[in-house]
């Protein structure tokens, strides 16, 4: 039990609820194999699912439509990775299974870097990455595409409140 004023846990004897979760890769092809794996995870007791980082909401929507068609009932949180630079996106595309950053996002990040260099402003790609993450979260919420998001800030956790605020969510 948390004290409302201090936030301190006052009753440490209470046993916390332990939730079992799993992950899924929405951009995996063919999608029916990923849907089958998802069904097996839920049948094995997963109470919620976190996706690998998503960057294309149309692909995520198609995946969620397939989940619904398959009748799989579970809570799904979309994985959001705020991109810091075009190089980060290219690296993830080449080296992280299940990641597919669209070329349009990479191009926007590269353009932000070029603009920053031209104007002598540091950090424009990172700011753009925060904006893109916030836009995706707001759209996921507006379209009711999932039950929440998992922001994978990768060493930039201080940006999570900023992302949430820009997405129109409060902490």
Topology of this protein?
Blueprint: E1 21-24, H1 31-43, E2 48-53, H2 57-69, E3 75-80, H3 86-95, H4 103-119, H5 124-142, E4 148-151, H6 160-166
Parallel strand pairs: 1-2, 2-3, 3-4
Helix pairs in contact: 3-4, 4-5, 5-6
Can you characterise this structure?
This protein is of the alpha/beta class and 171 residues long. It is 46% helix and 12% strand. Strands 1-2-3-4 form a four-stranded parallel beta sheet. Helix 3 packs antiparallel against helix 4. The longest helix is centred in the C-terminal third of the chain and has 19 residues, at 124-142. The mean pLDDT is 92.
Please outline what is shown here.
This protein has 171 residues and is an alpha/beta fold. Helix content is 46%, strand content 12%. It has helices spanning 31-43, 57-69, 86-95, 103-119, 124-142, 160-166, and strands at 21-24, 48-53, 75-80, 148-151.
What are its keywords?
single chain; 171 residues; alpha/beta; 4-stranded parallel beta sheet; 6 helices; 4 strands; 46% helix; globular
> How does the major sheet shape up?
4 strands, parallel
Q: Based on the structure, what is the oligomeric state of the protein chains?
A: single chain
> Which strand order do you get reading across the main beta sheet?
1-2-3-4
- Could you tell me how far the N terminus lies from the C terminus, measured between alpha carbons in angstroms? 19 Å
Helicity level: 40-55%
Shape: globular
Approximate strand percentage: 5-15%
Q: How many individual helices?
A: 6
Tell me the total number of β-strands. 4
List unreliable stretches of 5+ residues: none
Q: Topology as H/E string? A: EHEHEHHHEH
Q: If you compute it from the alpha carbons, what radius of gyration comes out, rounded to the nearest whole angstrom?
A: 18 Å
Provide the residue-averaged pLDDT.
Answer: 92
Structural class: alpha/beta
């Amino acid at each position: 039990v948390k004290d409302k004023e201090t936030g301190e846990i006052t009753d440490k004897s209470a046993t916390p609820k332990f939730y079992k979760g799993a992950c899924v890769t929405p951009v995996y092809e063919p999608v029916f194999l990923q849907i089958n794996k998802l069904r097996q995870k839920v049948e094995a007791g997963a109470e919620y699912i976190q996706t690998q980082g998503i960057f294309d909401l149309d692909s995520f929507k198609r995946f969620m439509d397939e989940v619904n068609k398959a009748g799989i009932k579970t809570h799904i949180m979309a994985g959001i990775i705020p991109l810091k630079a075009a190089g980060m996106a290219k690296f993830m595309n080449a080296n992280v299974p299940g990641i597919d950053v669209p070329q349009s996002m990479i191009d926007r990040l590269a353009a932000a870097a070029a603009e920053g260099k031209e104007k002598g402003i540091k950090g424009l790609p990172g700011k753009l990455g925060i904006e893109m993450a916030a836009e995706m979260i707001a759209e996921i919420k507006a379209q009711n595409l999932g039950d929440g998001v998992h922001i994978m800030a990768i060493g930039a956790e201080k940006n999570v409140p900023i992302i949430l605020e820009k997405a129109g969510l409060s902490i």
